[in-house]
Fold this sequence. Notes:
The protein is mainly α. It has one domain. The chain is about 75% helix and about 5% strand. It has 5 helices and 2 strands; from the N terminus they run βααβααα. The chain has helices spanning about 5-30, 40-45, 55-85, 85-90, 95-125, and strands spanning about 1-5, 50. A two-stranded antiparallel ribbon has the order 1-2. The mean pLDDT is about 85.
Amino acid sequence: MKKYKNLQIAFLIEIFVGFGTIISISIIGPKALAALAVLALRPIILEKEIIKDEKTYFQFFYKIIQSSLSIIFIMIVSLIIIMQFIPIWSAKLPPSENLLVIILPFFLLTHGVIGLINYSNFELKE
């Protein structure tokens, strides 16, 4: 199995694509979700290498996915509470259709940030 040789750049690409897609969606609307296609360039740009210790590598990515999904879950629950129980704040949010479209780029942004933060721990274990 192979991984990206420079995981820091891979996580930075996720951060930039996620943030750029969120900005695009807020300006253009749900059609801007096509900006995620930029992420498909990542395998072309970055080199890959064979994973030396698969167990440590998969534990690292499990920790990142678990943290990212927890943050997304908290975001979704917060949005539902705001939309249902706080009508004053609900008026300031974009339409609910656009909120669901923002979840995927926000996940990319969160995954990239958490991966970048936890990368130093992963590097020490290798």
